[in-house]
Design brief:
alpha+beta; nine-stranded mixed β-sheet; eight-stranded mixed β-sheet; 17% helix; disordered N terminus
Length: 645
């Protein structure tokens, strides 16, 4: 009891310090923070964000809006699992549109005598990735990290020619004691905001007069924010946490340039057309593309042109992993073969347009970035630009960063999302949806049970559309996946060899993997337990929590088929065979079927999983959870084989 009171007392002391108007001094250790051993409100917390602070100041330079942001973060490390917060990575763009500087970092801890120690990171411990190919980053890792220490860093980010202000996220995956967002803007720029919070936000406004202008200052503050718990198959982290979103309103004279409703989006269209990072690329010359355009002109159909240009852009340019709608020089992107998502897709748009293909740029927000809202005009909702292509009655959504995806399939990261079509005449909002079964895979297994009860077999797995893209991306990130590496589950081992891959570069065909394998079943004495789903994607039920706080998104409609055939030797007897079963949702949107069949010397299993909806609201969680529980209960059943003596 004494220890608990001691911990709570220090927690109260820390919260009291952070409740003051004056922020804690940067670069100074605080003995109360260092002695804090756990967070009483959430004892599972691995770290606490003591302070999260952002100050954004806008400047007008001729027709451009510049933005300087100062960021400061102070974190208490409670457990070893919180060490990941001691590694910091700050991405920034190429072409000098944004710069990060003035980076300072400290770590504070108690020595053996219980004295506070302060260490400052040396400049040579802060690394910058200066490579031309790829997203640049500033990265550093705090030394001497241990439970109980406090880390702190700050930096300045400068952006030029910006049209948006990033949302401010009060909440994070660890508790936050104090979150502050401060915005300073001249009178010619009006900042509109909306708060998406369940907690009270303390808002303060003031002004500061200069000789010829006045700055408006808004401060948003929230205290003692609980950690957000991630849930499987969420729409996005950013969609569900407490936050503030902003839009920039530029004023000319005494009137705002932006008006109400849809006219705001029309104004943004005009800005984007004129922007050096966007509209100037629509007709820009890209040196070295004449032969490509000449080849496209020889193709007979529009879809042949689309496929050809889309494929060539993906071959030529490597994505630097930066997702944005701000593009640098697309000619330089073509020459170097590296670019961010905007540079790649505006290059694609440029070449399609020059080939006579009817197409438009669309502002998109990926699933990770969160959902958009047409009723809140703000470019900060978007984090990319894709290309909408029209061919008679067919419409395609293209993203050149999706290396393994066919032009006929919309990218999964924008499925069931609204996007803004940027066009002076036909601009407006569109919804990206597709009812096809785009997450589709099929597994064919032919195996033999040998006399020693070891299984030797061959398998073919086919991946279609989104499943194809995901599988190839995974294999690109992990080249050893399913290649001469044992796959171990509980009490059973699978060794895969002789892998043959087909259609890796042919986007319009399913990606196929053929291989042979050895399967060692789990056993108890003379009884062996066969798992026909051992090579399937069904590994663990994602829905185990009793309560759900967010909607469920599967990305796209799904289909999985399994065809399993096992030849049995004379010394094998099927002791127990699971019954044929089918489970189905009340609205028939989801079904799962398993059929077993046995004959002399042969065992067969066929399974089919179908999902005709990719989004389920949190209110539908209980029936969905029950279906998945039944489904995994069926999957976890085993065929029991007995070895005859």
């Amino acid at each position: 009891m004494t220890k608990l009171l001691f911990t709570v007392a220090f927690l109260f002391a820390v919260c009291t310090v952070y409740a003051q108007d004056k922020l804690p001094g940067f670069g100074k250790a605080d003995i109360k923070e260092l002695m804090l051993q756990e967070y009483a409100e959430d004892r599972s917390a691995t770290a606490i964000k003591l302070l999260d602070y952002r100050e954004s100041e806008f400047f007008i330079d001729l027709d451009f809006i510049k933005l300087t942001t100062e960021r400061r973060v102070r974190i208490k490390i409670l457990k070893k699992e919180g060490y990941k917060y001691a590694t910091v990575s700050l991405p920034y763009t190429r072409h000098n549109r944004a710069k990060i500087g003035d980076i300072t970092a400290y770590i504070y801890y108690l020595n053996e005598k219980g004295e506070a120690v302060t260490e400052k990171l040396d400049s040579d411990e802060i690394y910058r990735n200066q490579s031309k190919e790829g997203l640049r980053k500033v990265a550093f890792t705090f030394p001497n990290v241990k439970p109980g220490c406090v880390i702190e860093y700050k930096y300045t980010k400068k952006e030029k020619s910006t049209l948006h202000l990033d949302p401010w996220f009060f909440q994070d995956e660890i508790p936050t004691l104090l979150s502050v967002c401060k915005i300073i803007s001249p009178s010619k720029i009006e900042i509109e905001k909306r708060l998406i919070t369940s907690r009270q936000v303390n808002e303060k406004t003031s002004s500061q007069k200069h000789l010829y202008s006045t700055d408006n200052i808004t401060t948003l503050e929230m205290k003692n924010i609980a950690a957000f718990k991630m849930e499987p198959l969420m729409s996005s982290f950013r969609d569900n946490i407490q936050r503030a979103e902003f839009t920039i309103v530029r004023r000319y004279g005494i009137y705002p340039l932006l008006f109400m409703g849809n006219k705001k989006w029309q104004t943004y269209t005009g800005w984007l057309y004129a922007a050096p990072f966007f509209g100037k690329h629509f007709t820009a010359e890209i040196i070295g593309t004449k032969s490509l355009l000449d080849s496209a002109a020889l193709l007979k159909t529009t879809q042949q042109k689309i496929n050809f240009i889309y494929t060539e852009v993906k071959k030529k340019i490597k994505w630097d992993d930066h997702q944005t709608f701000y593009a640098g020089d697309i000619d330089e992107c073509w020459q170097t073969g590296f670019g961010n998502s905007a540079e790649m897709n505006l290059t694609l748009f440029n070449l399609l347009k020059k080939s006579g293909v009817d197409c438009f740029p669309i502002l998109i927000s990926t699933r990770q970035n969160g959902k958009t809202d047409e009723h809140f005009p703000s470019l900060s909702q978007f984090n990319g630009v894709d290309v909408l292509v029209s061919d008679s009655s067919d419409i395609f959504i293209l993203d050149a960063t999706q290396k393994f995806l066919s032009y006929k399939v919309p990218p999964q990261n924008v499925m069931n999302r609204s996007a803004f079509l940027v066009d002076s005449a036909a601009g407006g909002w569109i919804n990206i949806a597709d009812e096809r079964l785009l997450q589709k895979s099929r597994v064919f297994i032919n195996a033999i049970l040998k006399n020693d009860f070891q299984i030797r077999g061959s398998a073919t797995i086919e991946f279609y559309d989104h499943a194809r893209s995901q599988q190839l991306l995974e294999e690109k990130e992990n080249k050893e996946k399913m290649r001469d590496k044992p796959l171990k589950t509980e009490n059973e081992t699978i060794t895969i060899d002789s892998v043959v891959q087909e259609n890796e570069t042919e986007d319009l065909k399913p990606y196929k993997k053929r291989f042979t394998f050895d399967y060692e079943m789990s056993q108890t004495g003379d009884f062996y337990f066969l798992n026909p789903f051992v090579l399937s994607s069904f590994s663990e039920n994602p829905f185990r929590d009793s309560v759900r706080n967010s909607s469920i998104e599967f990305g796209s409609n799904q289909q999985f088929d399994l065809f399993f055939s096992l030849s049995l030797p004379d010394n094998a007897f099927i002791e127990e065979l699971p019954t044929n079963q089918r489970v189905i949702m009340a609205d028939s949107s989801l079904s799962f079927t398993v059929l077993y069949q046995k004959s002399e010397g042969l065992l067969m299993c066929r399974s089919n999983f179908l999902m005709h909806r990719s989004i389920y609201e949190k209110e539908e969680y209980d029936p969905l959870k029950k279906i998945f529980e039944k489904m995994y209960a069926i999957i976890n059943q085993r065929v029991i084989l007995k070895k005859l003596r």
